[in-house]
Amino acid sequence: MKAALILLLCLLMAIPTANGETAMNTFTPNWNNVKPLGRTKPLEDSLWLCFSGSGAEFTAECTRLAITMAGDSNVNDKSNQTRIAIEVNGQRVVDDMLDAAEKTYTVWESEAAQPITVRVIKLSETAMSTCGIKAIATDAAAIQPTAKKARAIEFIGDSITCGYGVDDEDANHPFSTSTEDVTRAYAYKTAQALDADYSMVSISGYGIISGYTGTGESKVTNQLIPTYYEKLGFSYGSYQGETPANVAWDFSAYTPDLIVVNLGTNDDSYTGTDPERQEDYRASYTEFLKVIRRNNPDATILCTLGIMGDRLYPQVKNAVAAYTEETGDTNIGCLKFDVQSPADGYAADWHPTAATHDKAAEKLIKRIQQLMTW
């Protein structure tokens, strides 16, 4: 009886309309009908996306599918609008800037119903803008979350992890969310190569004790990743009147097997070669490791640095050694990236190019395979 009822409901939902087209069903995405990518927040009318790489993935069997995206308070600020991508069966079919309160994209049309896998990805970072997946309209009777992968990684970083400027290989050009693409950065590439789920906690210009200073004279203490590690994110904009810094992250929602930390590039603009400042970085790094462990008791931690300079890497190693000595926790390791080479060029504001990201991913993958036996 129950099976017959379900079949009847499905048939009713697929009844053609007066003009011969199959009726569309509209779904509000949540953690029950889509798989969250990274840190997301289900709201009554949308799924809120903040950090780079956050998004959703789902399957449907349909002839048509459209997705409505919602912008935040920065939709009219061209330098800070959210850049999003939508993939169908692994192919990018939408790459756009959210310049309106709502935008609807038709991402799939076919004569006969076919099974498809859809992925929505926030390509740009949280600080400048956030967005929401507002509605998924399709003639499918239902949408289903894709399966969780056997492996899960969290990446904690800065602009390098965000893919800052990777689509603009001119070192003299400034920052723009339109040239950020997290999928071309080393972290996303690593997760894809290892067939792992991922979560990014990264903001450009941020560090452990100081954000990027420019002059090095004093700390920039309002740009610290530890401040927002236990939050949904941070943004100068707001979504439906709310900011992600006011939303605590539920660590039970995503349990990484591995956490890759890549922080210190911006701190180095403050510490320079000053031994006291470097020790401040080391001590604060050690304390941040304790915060990471408190929220992720079983994850392996891998501490990295070096793509845009490796001067602080010895202090990364010292921080890990001090942490292990204080806590007895040995489920932690280190990796020094190669410094980007002039031969591979530079992206906006002297950031890594796609070629540099590829090399960093290759090195990281090998280290992870060794560390995790993946």
Structure description:
This protein is an alpha+beta fold and 374 residues long. It folds into two domains: 23-145, Jelly Rolls; 151-372, 3-Layer(aba) Sandwich (Rossmann fold). It contains eight helices and 15 strands. It has helices at 2-13, 159-162, 186-193, 225-228, 268-271, 275-295, 313-327, 354-372, and strands at 25-27, 35-37, 40-42, 47-49, 55-70, 83-88, 91-97, 102-122, 131-138, 144-145, 151-157, 196-202, 258-262, 300-305, 332-336. Strands 1, 2, 3, 4, 5, 6, 7, 8, 9 and 10 form a ten-stranded antiparallel sheet that branches. A five-stranded parallel sheet has the order 12-11-13-14-15, with helices on both faces. A hairpin with a 2-residue loop joins strand 6 (83-88) and strand 7 (91-97). The N and C termini lie far apart (46 Å). The model is unreliable at 1-19 (pLDDT under 50).
Provide the fold topology:
Elements: H1 2-13, E1 25-27, E2 35-37, E3 40-42, E4 47-49, E5 55-70, E6 83-88, E7 91-97, E8 102-122, E9 131-138, E10 144-145, E11 151-157, H2 159-162, H3 186-193, E12 196-202, H4 225-228, E13 258-262, H5 268-271, H6 275-295, E14 300-305, H7 313-327, E15 332-336, H8 354-372
Parallel strand pairs: 11-12, 11-13, 13-14, 14-15
Antiparallel strand pairs: 1-9, 2-5, 3-4, 4-9, 5-8, 5-9, 5-10, 6-7, 6-8
